[in-house]
Amino acid sequence: MIDVVNFSLENTFVKMPDGRLLQQNKGIPMGDPTSPGITIITCAWMESKFIKGIPESEKQNIMAKRYMDDLLVLTAKRDTDQQRAILDQLDDGCYGDLKLVPGRDNTFLENTIRVNADNSLDWWLKDENLEHPGKIWRYTLIDSQAPYKQKTATIIATLKKAYNMGSNDELRFKSIRRKIVEFRTLGYTAASLRQICKRLAMEMEDPMWYKLPKFFF
Fold this sequence. Notes:
The protein is α+β, with helices and mostly antiparallel strands. The chain is 47% helix and 14% strand.
């Protein structure tokens, strides 16, 4: 396995528009199938070194979760010099020359996260159109050239994602309803969306899907 990684690191070539062939000699190979694995292993190695440098008394006050290149950090409400120093080191030392780019507040991957009064967490599929309607449209119009079967598959996958990325039934319901509004705006009929909801109710064995058409349409 090490031989495979070394070969990838030493034999990454890029063809430029003018026909030149350039060899990449720094960083993880661009476009190589081994790159995601190398990235994860490299980050994990850097993180293990970083964790060893955190005093035991502080480890219980900080928790981090990384997925690929997205990092979520939770800290206890302790504005101490040591805690600030640890966060500064994480931001400017843990990953070597790589610099963390701040994301949106309360967002990790495609989820919006809420910290409740009892310190429990809720999460749901983020929706940038919630505050700014029409800001982002990810799906095709009903009268686009894409096959209708493809459009239906996209709707089903999107509604399932909204369902699976909610921490409770109330938030799942709200997320799915917002997605339905989005599809309705793109011209999809209430009848077709109602049929999809019924199909998902049977497939996922959750009666919530039956409430959506009754509530919204």
